[in-house]
Design a protein that fits this description.
alpha/beta, FAD/NAD(P)-binding domain, 7-stranded mixed sheet, 5-stranded parallel sheet, about 30% strand, elongated
Amino acid sequence: MNDLHEGEVYDVAIVGAGLSALSLLRSGAAALGRTVVLDYQEQVGGLLRYLLPADGFGEEWELLRDFRLPQGVRLLLQTTAVGLLPASDAEMAHTLVVRQRQGTAHLRARSVVIACGGLERPREHDAIPGTRPAGVMTPVLALQLLARGYLPGRRALVYGASRYALATARRLAAAGLEVITAAPTAANGRQVRFCGTLEEICGFPRLSAVRLLCDHQPVEIEVDTLIYATALQANTHWLKGSGVELTAAGAIVVDGQYRTSIPGIYAIGTVVRPELDHQHSLRMGKEVAALLPGGVS
């Protein structure tokens, strides 16, 4: 399944097999012609699949649970896009530089849909002061550990107020951890135990406490695990030098029809709107299915 056959030219190449890509495939893959989908993971569904099923993500779970690869669509897993070489004119194909276990190769397609999602932002990105102990992680690592039968700790602080963060807190509690919730703000009416700024991470070699500033008052909470769940950043580092226009924060700029700055290249999902809750991903996938050449309305 993962043989590239470099001489082939596809009608559509979809980079990523997360929720927006699956929504696109479900909505209109049969009309798109020769289609290939590639993803660096071993399964489809993106990072959110480690959480599902979960309260508040019913539609996403139904999509993932019921998804079947459309006939004629080629799926290349454990295949990572590492570069994009846009076509020099409208009659030529775009080239994706991809890496597999056996090496690097080129994949060519007349249209490209970038749906490679985002990366959970770590505490290092936000320069949170303190030590660098074990026990500090983003939600996906904690969920992956649970999926493999390991507990990430005994007493955890989940820092973030998104649906995703709170669903992660519930999953950890169900697994037997003592869980405390906190966030910079109680966004969208979601309740957390503490609201405040994360001021410092303490302990080494294992996390022993975190310090918050809540209503101008310092609060120290003893925990051995911190789940840092504040934001998502677009996975666009591999597009450097491609000419695809990005925002200052690194997300892909698109117009109302999901077209990027390069003709024939589209973008959907959290690579366009980086949100932990993926609240626009399914809609974007469905809409772009009708906008691609040959797409269905």
